[in-house]
Amino acid sequence: MRKTEIAISIYKLTDLLQTKFIEMTIKDFGARVESVWEGLRPMTKKMIVGALHSGSGNTPTVAAQKFSYDAHADWELSRLLSALDEQAKNAEVRKDVENLREIRQLANTCAAVLESKTESAEVFIQLATRTLQRNDFNKVDRLADILTQRFSAGEIAEIIRQTDLAQIRAVAFETLALLPVSSILSLLDDPIYFEIARNAIEQQAFEFDNADAQAVLEQIEFDEVSGE
After folding, report:
1. Res. 66 pLDDT band, cuts 50 70 90
2. Helices and strands (H, E) in the chain, number of each type
3. Which of 5, 127, 189, 204 is placed for a possible disulfide with 210 were both Cys, Cβ 3.0 to 4.6 Å?
4. Is pLDDT of 184 > 60?
């Protein structure tokens, strides 16, 4: 057996042992966390274990596992993160320092994976709210970068529509206003997002002196006067 194959076998064995260890540890995290964990698909569990392993600084230089990420994984990780964060607030749990540390470590791992992968408005609001509660304003800036890099205009508008927090709404509006006008146009056809899109276009027209935005705004105003 070649060295690479041996390394892969060792990595898989380590991964399996870590998964079993985490499942044993999860039982100490409360009934809701355990229930959510048991409902995860095996591929999502492996993804979390891999992320934990990577975060430990013991990642092997070969056979790095590739995990497929989809909307279901997004939802599963979001649910697990919610359960862990809720448990971390429990007064009884907070008395056990070691258990609390492990809960927070797993929660932070879930959050890190979501931050690197999610394109969901709901998950972004969850992550941003969590970050604001911790007064981690540097991470708020990093989350704003995520919007620019991965999120569609529709998802950014959905963040604005759904969030109750002014800070998150401001970040999302700022990002939406920086997108090309062509990316925002389709939102004008949806009554749910019309005002959000119009506000972003107005900002581009007046604050950024964007000629394309000015032309679109003039057309909107003409249509309103014409009753179209």
Report:
1. low
2. 12, 0
3. 204
4. yes
